[in-house]
Amino acid sequence: MSQYHSSRRSFLATAAAALAAPALTDSLAFAGTQPPKPAAAGGLKLGVASYSLRKFTLDQTIEALKDMKVQYVNFKDVHLPRTDPPETIKANRQKIEAAGLTIMGGGTITWKDDNEAEIRKDFDYAKAAGFPLIVASPNPTTLNTVEKLAKEYDIKIAIHNHGPEDPWKYHTPQDVLAQIKNRDARMGCCMDIGHATRGGADIVECVKILGPRLLDMHMKDLASKTDKGSQVEVGKGVLDIPGLFRALLKAKFSGHVGLEYEINESSPQVGMKESLAYERGVLAALMSTT
């Protein structure tokens, strides 16, 4: 058994003790009926990628997120359709914000062809939806246009690594970095830690390697580092979540740490709550020892 796995029980025991402290329970919003307040300085913005609730309507998703005490959300277009007129998109944005949710971005949006008019439509959509960031899967041939529009709209672009199956060969965050390292600072990476691991990357080291180019993150866990279908609740798998969170805190990462729960799609709430509880526990334990 690895040192990481053998220490998990003691780590969670520390987390449980930390969560008993009133100040930490308030900051992590385990109590109350409203979404939590923003994380305290030095914390992480633990939230959800709405793709986790892809079988739910927008209204159902909002209620589920409130029930989970989630504040930070990245919205998939299944909940904010890109085909809706701007007035509808803006109205739904207002509904989301009125519920106390903070929109951290949207996506993933795929750009296959270097067609500025079509890509611009997605930037207009992002502006109407209040996205400060687009999680994207762009064909490398589109990057000049994407960079140009990122500057024009002042919207960050976080390129998502999709592991060995990635059609544009963004297998790992390092592959993303190779494409954007000399581009505008708005161009960066959304590290999907499951796909990155399957691509052979060390997710803790990736935080250091990416530095300020790490703009967003998709959280998940795997029972096997090579099997895409082995996703489990965060904390039940083999990924080093405590080590990852340590690295993020050290880097003062201010982006979204969004749970992307892709299993049990018709009834994901129990698994999502378990995953969020583990993440919050790890964060509380780390913050209580600093």
Commentary on this structure:
With 290 residues, the protein is of the alpha/beta class. It has a single domain, classed as TIM Barrel, CATH 3.20.20. Helix content is 42%, strand content 17%. It contains twelve helices and ten strands. The protein has helices at 3-6, 8-19, 22-28, 58-67, 86-98, 116-129, 143-153, 173-180, 193-198, 203-210, 241-250, 269-288, and strands at 45-49, 72-75, 102-111, 133-138, 156-160, 187-192, 214-219, 221-222, 231-232, 256-259. It has an eight-stranded parallel β-barrel with strand order 1-2-3-4-5-6-7-10, surrounded by six helices. The protein has a two-stranded antiparallel ribbon with strand order 8-9. It is globular and about 45 Å long.
Task: Write the SSE topology.
Elements: H1 3-6, H2 8-19, H3 22-28, E1 45-49, H4 58-67, E2 72-75, H5 86-98, E3 102-111, H6 116-129, E4 133-138, H7 143-153, E5 156-160, H8 173-180, E6 187-192, H9 193-198, H10 203-210, E7 214-219, E8 221-222, E9 231-232, H11 241-250, E10 256-259, H12 269-288
Parallel strand pairs: 1-2, 1-10, 2-3, 3-4, 4-5, 5-6, 6-7, 7-10
Antiparallel strand pairs: 8-9
